[in-house]
């Protein structure tokens, strides 16, 4: 999907194997900037590089034109093809320093954040060539600037990216999608990052990792309202349930998910860790 003359949004489909008998369909967005050189923002899961490469060729460009890959954060659906793309295209990888250990050593990430089917989503670590800093501006082309906005919450080193000339803001996973899996490292930081997105007046098109492009002030406001309301509902539910001691592992998480009316597969250590952060 062409968002601006040289800025495209590409949907990358994948599956998560919850167990041998159940899979869920997911997708994640990748941004491709067709400047004199090509910049990619996020890379999808393992094997998604093929879809990215095909799209680049369909637009009359060559894989060797890829110069930079920016990783919004370290989770497998965003870094899964980064190593393959770097190996083939010889490009550089940029990410926030807060994501370094989980990008450069996926064994650590799998140990600390055991996503179901982790190594089916990402199977290679990749070295970061330079770190992204808050308010840093990167020129993707003559009239295309990418402003880095450190937006912790979903993860410690999550970044949003503003394209000021085209008034486009990419928020990655900084805005919770209503009724989607509660997945964040720090609840309070998540709230603060959401508030920063809401109060910004620098964009007219809002991009996330999990939705089509959102345009128009009313639609953007509605989406932000839904995310904020979801966080508030989660906070109220978690604080009412996570009291005292559990009689069995994930007991509180299970009760919270049931009360919120969310799917059973949301009951897992990653969500439990997110919920426990509400009590800090």
From TrEMBL:
<feature type="domain" description="Metallo-beta-lactamase">
    <location>
        <begin position="27"/>
        <end position="210"/>
    </location>
</feature>
<dbReference type="Pfam" id="PF00753">
    <property type="entry name" value="Lactamase_B"/>
</dbReference>
<dbReference type="InterPro" id="IPR001279">
    <property type="entry name" value="Metallo-B-lactamas"/>
</dbReference>
<dbReference type="GO" id="GO:0016787">
    <property type="term" value="F:hydrolase activity"/>
</dbReference>
<keyword id="KW-0378">Hydrolase</keyword>
<protein>
    <submittedName>
        <fullName>MBL fold metallo-hydrolase</fullName>
    </submittedName>
</protein>
<dbReference type="InterPro" id="IPR050855">
    <property type="entry name" value="NDM-1-like"/>
</dbReference>
<dbReference type="InterPro" id="IPR036866">
    <property type="entry name" value="RibonucZ/Hydroxyglut_hydro"/>
</dbReference>
